[in-house]
Amino acid sequence: MTILVTGAAGTVGRHLVTQLLAAGHQVRALSRHPEAAGLPADVEVVRGDTTDVDSLAAAFAGVTAAHLINFGRGYQPLDNGEQIVAAAVRAGVRRVTLLGGWSEGTLEPAVRASTLDWTQLQPRADFMANTLADWGPPLRAHGVIREPHGDRLGASVHEADIAAVAATALTTDGHAGQTYTITGPEALTPRAKVRHLADATGRDLRFEELTPDQARALWTAEPPPLQIYRVAPGGPAEKADFVLRLYANVPESGSTPTDTVERVTGRPARTFAQWAVDHADSFRPSAA
């Protein structure tokens, strides 16, 4: 079968493309900038954008299954879900996975109401890959993470595990109509994550606790490289308060590990310690 991957150049999409290729499937990738996608040579990369339904006809043509994401640029939920679903059904797509963002848009209800065999993927914890952007710069520069609420728990999920659940749902039976809540295998504090990165890099890395007031003052004067801060609403003060509220009140769904990855794929979910070893060079000064 030919499988279309939207968001193929993204954090989860790249892993999904690699896993599908390794399993022997033909992969077509949707990209706004095919020339810069940097995907394997075996991938058919087509130009298109989910916010522009007219660009999807060529992408869906001859495709039997597709991986969709519910957000466009700026992580905003798509407002053209019904049109996307109609284009997919018209082209003969039979099976889809749908990766959700922070909030539901128009694509989820359109998919659920369609004739497609759909599987919804809901990562409820932060991606381990966010650590690269969030903590890479400060750890490379001075080996210290300065944040509030250092004892908050999060069941961070490896992006390759999200892709593995998607690949399984796209290529095997028994997943239609399912909504899978995906997390990592354990709940860790930021302090524990820094210790894992210290062990992986062989460096003396430290976590320094800030009070909420200290964090607000720091973040409004010099915005941190936090992915969630970048997409939070409002100006610097509003963004800082948004992140502080989230850090102080981590939802139970984001801090409680699930067995979804192992139950769906038959393989245990990857730990943060494993992720840290794989990405250790990114937290050393030489990676700057």
From TrEMBL:
<dbReference type="InterPro" id="IPR016040">
    <property type="entry name" value="NAD(P)-bd_dom"/>
</dbReference>
<feature type="domain" description="NAD(P)-binding">
    <location>
        <begin position="7"/>
        <end position="99"/>
    </location>
</feature>
<dbReference type="InterPro" id="IPR036291">
    <property type="entry name" value="NAD(P)-bd_dom_sf"/>
</dbReference>
<dbReference type="InterPro" id="IPR051604">
    <property type="entry name" value="Ergot_Alk_Oxidoreductase"/>
</dbReference>
<dbReference type="Pfam" id="PF13460">
    <property type="entry name" value="NAD_binding_10"/>
</dbReference>
<protein>
    <submittedName>
        <fullName>Uncharacterized protein YbjT (DUF2867 family)</fullName>
    </submittedName>
</protein>
